[in-house]
Amino acid sequence: MTYSMKQEKEPIASWHKNVLVITAVFTVIAIAMGGILCVTQSIRSCPDWPGCFGKILPPLEPSPILEITHRFFAGMSGLLILASLVAGLLKKQPVFSWLVLPALISSFLVLAVSYFGAMVVLHGIAPGWAAVDVGSALFLTALMVASAVIAVEMRKRGQTEIKLSSRSNFAKMVWSATAVVYLILVSAVLVAGPESITSCLGWPIYNLQVLSIDQRDMGYLVREVFSVIGLLFVMFMLVTSWRTQKENRPVMKLTNWVGAAFLLEMIVQVLLIIFGLNVYLKIVYTVTMSTTWGLLVALAMKTSLVENQAG
Q: Between the CA atoms of 113, 117, 122 and 125, what dihedral angle is there, to the nearest 10 degrees?
């Protein structure tokens, strides 16, 4: 299947490209901060919203500071997404453009994620809605990363028309791996027990302390199956890329970054099993997963773009 989105007569301006890249980076940082709040159990350290204990600045304690820091990055991400949308519209981009549509959809998702964030703090939310919250945040990040990749490619090629092709087996493999990882991350909330870090962003952790409080039902089994499939997908995708994409330097560069992030997370998984749920290991674990997600989406986009350029 091939997609073509026509842009304006001139390639994207440098400042516009930079706005989209910065927005993508901030969205990844925002979900990483959300993961840090989760693994440190700091999500409700500020009992009100959007302030903290009725004030703008939080108490000088680790948990409230983490909470406000997350809100800052989430708020900045929202403003940058709005700026990206306005920039595209002012440049008279068509609505169905990679420079407008992702920001437009993300603007609505920001409102949804902000609402869920407020509900978590003020009242708490059911696991199903929590999964919607996580899924929305990840999808928002994927959209802005995709838009940034397109913008960089447009600037580099000096082209006003960008095509994506996912016809090759390798491109399908990368997109399939991305989809499976998405399901793994979103489904975590549905199987986590009370206070379990399973609900935090990452692969399943096979630590006895975690396993003892998580649910044991069909949903848990399905997630385990998806986790194994996802693990095999990612590993096979990395090996295939290293073997078949050597001439595609942009793809190889991103493949190496995805591989490094994936390997680091697997090492942290082993350390968490050996040394227990050390808070610093948990932070590295969830930040690495957030980074892996952004890089995986970028790799999927870049694979399709380079494939189209080569063909």
A: 70
Task: Assess whether 158 and 230 both reside in one domain.
Answer: no
Say yes or no: 177 and 159 in one domain: no
State whether 32 and 107 are in the same domain: yes
Query: Tens digits of per-residue pLDDT, 181-233?
Result: 999 898 888 877 777 777 787 777 666 666 666 666 676 777 778 788 888 88
Q: Can you tell me the distance from the alpha carbon of 282 to that of 196, in angstroms, rounded to the nearest whole number?
A: 12
Distance CA 63, CA 273 (A): 25
Q: Is the dihedral of CA 125, 128, 134, 135 positive or negative?
A: negative
Q: State the DSSP code for 160.
A: S
For residue 266, give Cα distances in angstroms to 17, 100, 204, 292: 33, 36, 11, 12
Structural domain tally of the chain?
2
Specify whether 9 is located in the same domain as 42.
Answer: yes
